[in-house]
Amino acid sequence: MKTTLDVKGMTCGHCKMSVEGALNELVGVSGVEVDLATGKVEVSYDESKVTLEQLQEAVEDQGYDVVA
Ligand code: 9UX
């Protein structure tokens, strides 16, 4: 399935890479699209392998806030 996370605090290309990298490392994630201008992070994932909570935690572990 596909979800869009609302992430606060990403401002440069390195932020984008950190968030994309962290999400892509998770088993079950098949695609990540970060829009820096809006903070929207579109994630394609298999919900039988990874949960929405795990996606949010992966982003938070990089130091960004996820708005529920
Ligand atoms: Mo760029 Mo992002 O210097 O936290 S890595 S703003």
TrEMBL record:
Main location: cytoplasm
SUPFAM superfamilies noted in UniProt: HMA, heavy metal-associated domain
Location of the HMA domain: 1-67
One term under GO cellular component: cytoplasm
Domain of life: Bacteria
Transmembrane segments: none
Record's protein name: Copper chaperone CopZ
